[in-house]
Amino acid sequence: MLNDVLTPPAQRDALRDDSASEIPAAAAWTAPLLWQTGDSVVDLRESIRAKLTFALGRTPESARPRDWFAATALALRERIVAACMASEKAVPNKRVYYLSLEFLIGRLMSDAMNNLGLTETTRAALRELGVDLDAVQDAEPDAALGNGGLGRLAACFMDSMASIGIPAVGYGIRYDHGLFRQSFEDGWQREAPETWLAEGNPWEFVRPDASYTIGFGGTVTMSSPNEGVIRRHWQPAETVRAVAHDIPVVGWRGRHVNRLRLWKAEAGEPVDLARFNGGDHVGAVAARSRAEAISRVLYPSDSSAEGQELRLRQEYFFTSASLQDLIARHVNERGDVRSLPDHAAIQLNDTHPAIAVPELMRILMEDHDLSWEDAWHVTTNTLNYTNHTLMPEALETWPVELMERLLPRHMQIIYLINWMHLEEQAKHGRQDPAHQDAAYLASISLIDEAHGRRVRMGHLAFHGARRVNGVSALHTDLMRSTVFAHLHALDPDKIVNKTNGITFRRWLHNANPGLTRLAVETVGSGVLDDPALLRGLEAHAEDPAFVARYAAVRRQRKEALARLVAERTGTDIDPEALFDVQVKRIHEYKRQLLNVVETVALYQAIKAEPHRDWTPRVKIFAGKAAPSYVQAKLIIKLACDVARAVNDDPEVAGRLKVVFLPNYSVSLAETIIPGADLSEQISTAGMEASGTGNMKFALNGALTVGTLDGANIEIRDHVGADNIFIFGLDAAGVQAREAEPGYAARAIQASPRLAAALDMIASGRFSPGEPGRFRPLTDDLRRRDQYLLTADFDDYWRVQRSIDAAWRDPRGWWAKAIRNTARMAWFSSDRSMREYAEEIWRVRLS
C-alpha cells in the first residue's frame, strides 16, 4: 500500500515484523507535524477499541463493518482535533471562503489516513483486532454532497488549500439525501434516496452555537433614524435556522487543517404545541417539514414552480448563513467590517451563490449601517466568481415574480444595482448609437426582459465580483467573446483564466498505490510532495524493464476493475482487452450518444466481417441522468439495450463487450479510472468548460480520445500531440457548422456507416418489444443534432480505428501512457490554488 512508503521510521518500527519487508527503502524522510504525536499500532488499536465500546456501545463480537468504520473514524478524528484547534487559535491575515452548492468529497477515511500517514498503522491496528481495513473502508458511505465535476472540483480545492497552507472555510449544505441512488430496472434508470446519513457521520462536529436566522418573504419598511438618511428594513414572513456541521479537512502530512462547514435547515420551533394539542397533529409539524426540506435533497427537480422555489430557497439559505458566519468571525477578530476585503476573499463557485451580491449589500447596510457606496466597495472587493458553463440553459436565471415574493429586499437591491449599472454607461460618455440601442442595454442588464422577466444570476455575479474566472484557456476566451462579451468590454481586466486541477493525493496516491509506489521507487520519495518530479518517469518510457513494471501495475488495476464490473453487472470482461471508458454525468453535450452510435457501427462491422482480426474492446459507461432529463435517461436505456444485444451475440464474443455500471460515485471512480486504457472526452467543442475526469485518467496512464474542448487542449499541449487522440471540429468549426442549415441530413447522407447505425437503432433492433423506443434520439439527430454528433461521427470512427492499431503495438502504447503520467504535474489542484491565491484572492500561504 501507498503508506508503506509514507510511514515514518518510528511508526514503521511499531508495525508487525511481517509488514516490514513491504516498505521500500526510498521511504525515509522527516515526519510530518501530526506524526510527531508518537502514535503506534498499540495506541491506535486501543483507541479504536475504546471508541467501539464507549462511543458506539458495541463489543468486538457484535460489531458490524459499519461499526468498525465509525470507531476507526472517531479514533482518527481524535488525532485531527489538536491541529484543528491550533488552526482555530491562529488568526491569519486573510482567509478564503469557498461557497459551493456541491462538495463531492466521497469517502473520507482514505484521505485522512493518507494525509496523516496512518494507513499502515491503521491496517495493523485493525488486524490485531481481527478486522480487515479494506472491509472497514468499504463500509463508509460516499458523502452524497454533490453531483459531478463541480462538486468534485470543490473537494479537490479544499484538499489543496489545506495542503499548501491557504487558510480557508468551505461553505455548503448538509444534504440529508444528496442527489439519488441510481439503479437499473430493465435498463431504465431508477432513482432512490441516497441515505448516506442513515447511521450518522462520524467525521462531523455539530455546532448548535453557530446558527443563524434565514428569512423568506415578508415586507420591506423604511425609517429615517438620521436626518436625510433613509434606511430600509426587511421583515420576513418566515424564518429558518441554519445550524453548522463542521468536517475537518486535513492537508498533506497533517500540517494544516481547514474546515468544511455545512448548513442544516431547522425550524425555529420543532412543533406547534397549540395545534398539536388541538388535534392537528400533521399541521403542527408542517413548518418543520417546510424548513427541513431545504437541506433534504440536492438539486430538487425544477420542472415545477414548487421545485424552482425550493432551489432558490436552498441557494439563499446557504449563502446567507455563510455570509453571516464569516462576517461575525471577521468582526470578532478585526472589529471593523469595512476591512473585510483586506482579510477575506469570498469565492462563488458558479452562479448558485450569486445571491451573495445583494445579500452582502443587505447585511452591510442593514446590520452594520454602511452607506450604499461603502457597502458596494466592500462587496465588489471581497467577492469573486467562477463561471463553469457557457450554455444558456445552465446559466441560472430566476423569475422576477419569484424573487420579489421570496426575497423582496434583495430585488430592491438588484433593481438599484442594475439602474446604477445602466446609468454608468451614460456617465462614461457611451452615447454613440451602438451603445444607445435597446439591444445593447438589454445585453448588459441584470434583468432579462425577453423571456418573461428573469434575473440573470451570471450577470449579477459578474457585476458584483472583483474577478471572474474561467476554468480552462478555451472556456475563458469563449466567456470573453460570447456570454459576457459586452460586460467584458466594459471591464476588460475582470475576466481571468484559472485552469482546473485535481488533487494527486486522492487520484494517484489513494486511487493507484501501485503506480505511486513505482514512481517513488523510480524518481524518489520527493514526488509525493512535488508532482513535478513525475517528469522523471519520462526517461524510462522506452526502458523495457520499467515498461514491464508499469504494465504490471496497470494490469492489476484492470483486474480490479474487471472484478468490480462482474460484481455490479454480472458481466465478465477480459483484462487483455482495451478498456474504453466514458464515465460522467449523462448529458447530450457530453455525447455519450456518439459513443453508443459508434458502438453500434462497430458491432455491425464485426458482424459483417467476423473473421477479421479485430482489436478486443470493452466499452464501459457510468453516470447519472437528472431525474427530469428524459433524453438523457433514454440514452442510458439505449446503452443498456445495446449492451444486452452485443454481450449475448456469440459472433462478437471476445471482440466487443459493453457494460453500464450503476450508481457512479467518487469511490467507484477510484476503481474505474486507474483501470482504464482509453478515456473518452468527446464533448461538443466549446461546450465543456474544463473537465477534471480527463486529468484523472491521463494521470493514471489512460490515453485520451477527445475533441479540442475544455482542458483537453491544455492536456494535449502538456502530454504532446503524439500521446493523445484528437478528432472532430474545434470550437470555431462548431460555430461555422451550426450556421449551415441542414448539416445533419447532409452528414448522414455522406456517411453510409452512420446511416446504417442510426437505421439499426431506429428499426427497433435493440428494443424488439417497443420498436419505436429510440426514435426520439434518431429523429433528433436527423433533424436538429444540436450537439453535432453527425458532423463528428466519421472522424470519431477514424480515430477509434487508429486507436485499435495503436493498442496492437504494446511498446508504443505503454510509452504514450508513461508520458501521460509523467507530464500531468501541471494539472495538480495545488497549482490551481496557488494561482487563485496569488492572482485572485491576494492571500499569503501559511
TrEMBL record:
Protein function: Phosphorylase is an important allosteric enzyme in carbohydrate metabolism. Enzymes from different sources differ in their regulatory mechanisms and in their natural substrates. However, all known phosphorylases share catalytic and structural properties. Allosteric enzyme that catalyzes the rate-limiting step in glycogen catabolism, the phosphorolytic cleavage of glycogen to produce glucose-1-phosphate, and plays a central role in maintaining cellular and organismal glucose homeostasis.
Q: Which reaction does it catalyse?
A: [(1->4)-alpha-D-glucosyl](n) + phosphate = [(1->4)-alpha-D-glucosyl](n-1) + alpha-D-glucose 1-phosphate
Q: Name one GO biological process term.
A: glycogen catabolic process
Query: Which PROSITE patterns does the entry mention?
Result: PHOSPHORYLASE (PS00102)
| GO CC, alphabetical | cytoplasm
Q: What is this protein called?
A: Alpha-1,4 glucan phosphorylase
Q: Where in the cell is it found?
A: Cytoplasm
Protein species of origin: Methylobacterium pseudosasicola
What keywords tag this UniProt record?
Allosteric enzyme, Carbohydrate metabolism, Cytoplasm, Glycosyltransferase, Pyridoxal phosphate, Transferase
Question: Which family, according to UniProt?
Answer: Belongs to the glycogen phosphorylase family.
Signal sequence, renumbered to the chain = none
Modification N6-(pyridoxal phosphate)lysine, positions: 696
Matches recorded under Pfam families: Phosphorylase
Cofactor(s) required, per the database record: pyridoxal 5'-phosphate
Which GO molecular-function terms appear in the entry? glycogen phosphorylase activity; pyridoxal phosphate binding
